[in-house]
Amino acid sequence: MTIIRGKLQVYLTSILIIVVSSIVFSMHSFQPVRLLAVLSEMVIIAVSLVAAYLLGNRDLHRGIPLGLILLSLSTYFDLLEALTGMNYFEFISVALLAVGFPVLLASSIYHIRERKKRISEFSAVLSNSLEGILLLDLSENILYPNKTACDLLGFGEEQLKMKKFSDFLSEEGKEKLREARSCLFSGKNLSAFEVELITSGESPIVAEISLVIGRNANENPDSIILTFKDVT
Predict the structure, then answer these.
(1) Residue that terminates a domain, selected from 101, 122, 143
(2) InterPro entries of this UniProt entry (predicted)?
(3) What is the pLDDT of residue 226?
Protein backbone atom coordinates (compact mmCIF):
# COMPACT_ATOMS: atom_id res chain seq x y z
CA MET A 1 0.00 0.00 0.00
CA THR A 2 2.89 2.36 0.82
CA ILE A 3 4.44 1.68 -2.58
CA ILE A 4 1.18 2.50 -4.37
CA ARG A 5 0.80 5.76 -2.43
CA GLY A 6 4.40 6.64 -3.21
CA LYS A 7 3.79 6.09 -6.94
CA LEU A 8 0.66 8.24 -6.75
CA GLN A 9 2.61 11.07 -5.11
CA VAL A 10 5.24 10.91 -7.87
CA TYR A 11 2.65 11.18 -10.63
CA LEU A 12 0.64 13.92 -8.91
CA THR A 13 3.84 15.89 -8.27
CA SER A 14 4.81 15.49 -11.94
CA ILE A 15 1.40 16.79 -13.03
CA LEU A 16 1.72 19.76 -10.62
CA ILE A 17 5.18 20.64 -11.96
CA ILE A 18 3.90 20.53 -15.54
CA VAL A 19 0.89 22.72 -14.74
CA VAL A 20 2.89 25.32 -12.81
CA SER A 21 5.72 25.50 -15.36
CA SER A 22 3.25 25.80 -18.24
CA ILE A 23 1.47 28.68 -16.51
CA VAL A 24 4.78 30.41 -15.82
CA PHE A 25 5.93 30.06 -19.43
CA SER A 26 2.60 31.29 -20.78
CA MET A 27 2.25 34.33 -18.48
CA HIS A 28 3.81 36.64 -21.08
CA SER A 29 1.07 35.88 -23.60
CA PHE A 30 -2.69 36.07 -23.14
CA GLN A 31 -3.71 35.29 -26.71
CA PRO A 32 -6.85 33.03 -26.58
CA VAL A 33 -5.58 30.68 -29.30
CA ARG A 34 -2.22 30.27 -27.56
CA LEU A 35 -3.91 29.72 -24.19
CA LEU A 36 -6.22 27.07 -25.71
CA ALA A 37 -3.23 25.24 -27.19
CA VAL A 38 -1.46 25.29 -23.82
CA LEU A 39 -4.52 23.96 -22.00
CA SER A 40 -5.12 21.19 -24.54
CA GLU A 41 -1.53 19.94 -24.31
CA MET A 42 -1.69 20.12 -20.51
CA VAL A 43 -4.80 17.91 -20.60
CA ILE A 44 -3.02 15.38 -22.86
CA ILE A 45 -0.05 15.28 -20.47
CA ALA A 46 -2.25 14.87 -17.39
CA VAL A 47 -4.35 12.11 -18.98
CA SER A 48 -1.20 10.24 -20.08
CA LEU A 49 0.31 10.37 -16.59
CA VAL A 50 -2.92 9.29 -14.88
CA ALA A 51 -3.29 6.43 -17.37
CA ALA A 52 0.33 5.41 -16.70
CA TYR A 53 -0.36 5.36 -12.96
CA LEU A 54 -3.56 3.32 -13.28
CA LEU A 55 -2.03 0.84 -15.72
CA GLY A 56 1.11 0.59 -13.59
CA ASN A 57 -0.98 -0.99 -10.82
CA ARG A 58 -2.32 -3.72 -13.10
CA ASP A 59 -0.87 -6.94 -14.40
CA LEU A 60 0.57 -5.37 -17.54
CA HIS A 61 3.99 -5.28 -19.16
CA ARG A 62 6.03 -2.52 -17.48
CA GLY A 63 6.81 -0.98 -20.86
CA ILE A 64 3.19 0.17 -21.26
CA PRO A 65 3.14 2.74 -18.42
CA LEU A 66 6.78 3.62 -19.24
CA GLY A 67 5.82 4.35 -22.84
CA LEU A 68 2.95 6.55 -21.70
CA ILE A 69 5.25 8.49 -19.40
CA LEU A 70 7.77 9.05 -22.23
CA LEU A 71 4.98 10.23 -24.54
CA SER A 72 3.68 12.63 -21.89
CA LEU A 73 7.22 14.04 -21.46
CA SER A 74 7.47 14.39 -25.25
CA THR A 75 4.24 16.42 -25.23
CA TYR A 76 5.55 18.49 -22.32
CA PHE A 77 8.76 19.48 -24.15
CA ASP A 78 6.76 20.18 -27.30
CA LEU A 79 4.66 22.54 -25.18
CA LEU A 80 7.78 24.25 -23.84
CA GLU A 81 9.09 24.71 -27.39
CA ALA A 82 5.79 26.31 -28.43
CA LEU A 83 5.87 28.66 -25.43
CA THR A 84 9.55 29.64 -25.52
CA GLY A 85 10.52 29.19 -29.17
CA MET A 86 13.67 27.32 -28.10
CA ASN A 87 14.44 24.65 -30.70
CA TYR A 88 16.29 22.28 -28.40
CA PHE A 89 13.02 21.62 -26.57
CA GLU A 90 11.60 20.38 -29.89
CA PHE A 91 14.65 18.10 -30.35
CA ILE A 92 14.10 16.58 -26.88
CA SER A 93 10.40 16.15 -27.65
CA VAL A 94 11.10 14.29 -30.92
CA ALA A 95 13.72 12.09 -29.23
CA LEU A 96 11.31 11.12 -26.44
CA LEU A 97 8.58 10.42 -29.01
CA ALA A 98 10.97 8.28 -31.06
CA VAL A 99 11.70 6.18 -27.95
CA GLY A 100 8.32 6.24 -26.20
CA PHE A 101 6.07 5.21 -29.08
CA PRO A 102 8.03 2.05 -30.06
CA VAL A 103 8.28 1.08 -26.36
CA LEU A 104 4.52 1.47 -25.90
CA LEU A 105 3.71 -0.36 -29.15
CA ALA A 106 6.14 -3.24 -28.59
CA SER A 107 5.07 -3.68 -24.96
CA SER A 108 1.37 -3.68 -25.90
CA ILE A 109 1.91 -6.32 -28.60
CA TYR A 110 3.99 -8.46 -26.22
CA HIS A 111 1.35 -8.18 -23.48
CA ILE A 112 -1.49 -9.15 -25.84
CA ARG A 113 0.45 -12.18 -27.12
CA GLU A 114 1.38 -13.33 -23.60
CA ARG A 115 -2.19 -12.87 -22.39
CA LYS A 116 -3.56 -14.92 -25.30
CA LYS A 117 -0.97 -17.60 -24.57
CA ARG A 118 -1.91 -17.76 -20.87
CA ILE A 119 -5.64 -17.89 -21.70
CA SER A 120 -5.01 -20.67 -24.20
CA GLU A 121 -2.95 -22.67 -21.67
CA PHE A 122 -5.56 -22.09 -18.94
CA SER A 123 -8.39 -23.19 -21.26
CA ALA A 124 -6.45 -26.33 -22.18
CA VAL A 125 -5.97 -27.20 -18.49
CA LEU A 126 -9.68 -26.68 -17.79
CA SER A 127 -10.78 -28.68 -20.82
CA ASN A 128 -8.54 -31.65 -19.98
CA SER A 129 -9.30 -31.68 -16.26
CA LEU A 130 -10.80 -34.91 -14.90
CA GLU A 131 -12.83 -32.82 -12.43
CA GLY A 132 -15.81 -30.66 -13.21
CA ILE A 133 -14.99 -26.96 -12.91
CA LEU A 134 -17.60 -24.20 -12.71
CA LEU A 135 -16.93 -20.46 -12.55
CA LEU A 136 -19.79 -18.84 -10.63
CA ASP A 137 -20.59 -15.22 -9.91
CA LEU A 138 -21.37 -14.22 -6.32
CA SER A 139 -25.06 -15.01 -6.92
CA GLU A 140 -24.08 -18.55 -7.99
CA ASN A 141 -24.98 -18.03 -11.64
CA ILE A 142 -22.81 -20.27 -13.83
CA LEU A 143 -20.45 -18.15 -15.94
CA TYR A 144 -18.27 -20.90 -17.35
CA PRO A 145 -18.38 -24.72 -17.18
CA ASN A 146 -15.57 -26.95 -18.44
CA LYS A 147 -16.27 -30.04 -20.58
CA THR A 148 -16.13 -32.44 -17.63
CA ALA A 149 -18.75 -30.40 -15.75
CA CYS A 150 -21.02 -30.51 -18.81
CA ASP A 151 -20.59 -34.29 -19.08
CA LEU A 152 -21.22 -34.94 -15.36
CA LEU A 153 -24.32 -32.75 -15.20
CA GLY A 154 -25.63 -33.81 -18.60
CA PHE A 155 -26.07 -30.34 -20.10
CA GLY A 156 -24.37 -28.34 -22.84
CA GLU A 157 -22.24 -25.29 -22.06
CA GLU A 158 -24.86 -22.75 -23.15
CA GLN A 159 -27.58 -24.56 -21.18
CA LEU A 160 -25.47 -24.47 -18.01
CA LYS A 161 -24.77 -20.75 -18.46
CA MET A 162 -28.51 -20.14 -18.07
CA LYS A 163 -28.64 -21.90 -14.71
CA LYS A 164 -27.55 -21.40 -11.12
CA PHE A 165 -25.52 -24.03 -9.37
CA SER A 166 -28.24 -24.25 -6.73
CA ASP A 167 -30.58 -25.57 -9.46
CA PHE A 168 -28.73 -28.89 -9.18
CA LEU A 169 -29.06 -29.14 -5.39
CA SER A 170 -31.69 -30.48 -3.05
CA GLU A 171 -32.74 -28.39 -0.05
CA GLU A 172 -30.18 -30.25 2.06
CA GLY A 173 -27.51 -29.57 -0.57
CA LYS A 174 -28.40 -25.87 -0.68
CA GLU A 175 -27.98 -25.67 3.09
CA LYS A 176 -24.54 -27.31 2.87
CA LEU A 177 -23.55 -24.85 0.15
CA ARG A 178 -24.68 -21.86 2.26
CA GLU A 179 -22.63 -23.10 5.20
CA ALA A 180 -19.60 -23.69 2.98
CA ARG A 181 -19.87 -20.18 1.49
CA SER A 182 -20.16 -18.67 4.94
CA CYS A 183 -16.96 -20.41 6.05
CA LEU A 184 -15.18 -19.47 2.82
CA PHE A 185 -15.96 -15.75 2.99
CA SER A 186 -15.24 -15.53 6.72
CA GLY A 187 -11.70 -16.75 6.09
CA LYS A 188 -12.09 -20.12 7.84
CA ASN A 189 -10.50 -23.30 6.52
CA LEU A 190 -12.95 -25.07 4.25
CA SER A 191 -12.70 -28.78 3.58
CA ALA A 192 -14.25 -30.51 0.60
CA PHE A 193 -17.83 -31.61 1.24
CA GLU A 194 -20.24 -34.04 -0.41
CA VAL A 195 -23.68 -33.26 -1.85
CA GLU A 196 -26.13 -34.91 -4.19
CA LEU A 197 -26.31 -33.24 -7.60
CA ILE A 198 -29.46 -33.48 -9.68
CA THR A 199 -28.41 -34.18 -13.26
CA SER A 200 -30.27 -34.58 -16.54
CA GLY A 201 -30.04 -38.36 -16.08
CA GLU A 202 -32.45 -40.63 -14.27
CA SER A 203 -30.54 -40.63 -10.97
CA PRO A 204 -28.49 -37.99 -9.10
CA ILE A 205 -24.78 -38.31 -8.45
CA VAL A 206 -22.86 -37.82 -5.21
CA ALA A 207 -20.20 -35.17 -5.78
CA GLU A 208 -17.26 -34.03 -3.69
CA ILE A 209 -17.10 -30.24 -3.93
CA SER A 210 -14.34 -27.70 -3.26
CA LEU A 211 -14.74 -23.92 -3.35
CA VAL A 212 -12.20 -21.13 -3.96
CA ILE A 213 -12.80 -17.38 -4.03
CA GLY A 214 -11.99 -15.62 -7.31
CA ARG A 215 -10.71 -12.06 -6.97
CA ASN A 216 -10.46 -9.07 -9.31
CA ALA A 217 -7.45 -6.80 -9.88
CA ASN A 218 -8.22 -4.93 -6.62
CA GLU A 219 -8.22 -8.22 -4.68
CA ASN A 220 -11.96 -7.97 -4.03
CA PRO A 221 -14.06 -11.18 -4.31
CA ASP A 222 -15.91 -11.26 -7.63
CA SER A 223 -16.49 -14.95 -8.31
CA ILE A 224 -16.39 -18.49 -6.95
CA ILE A 225 -14.42 -21.31 -8.55
CA LEU A 226 -16.19 -24.59 -7.81
CA THR A 227 -14.61 -27.95 -8.59
CA PHE A 228 -16.40 -31.28 -8.17
CA LYS A 229 -15.93 -34.96 -8.95
CA ASP A 230 -18.26 -37.91 -9.00
CA VAL A 231 -17.78 -40.10 -5.91
CA THR A 232 -21.01 -42.06 -6.26
Answers:
(1) 122
(2) PAS, PAS-like_dom_sf
(3) 92
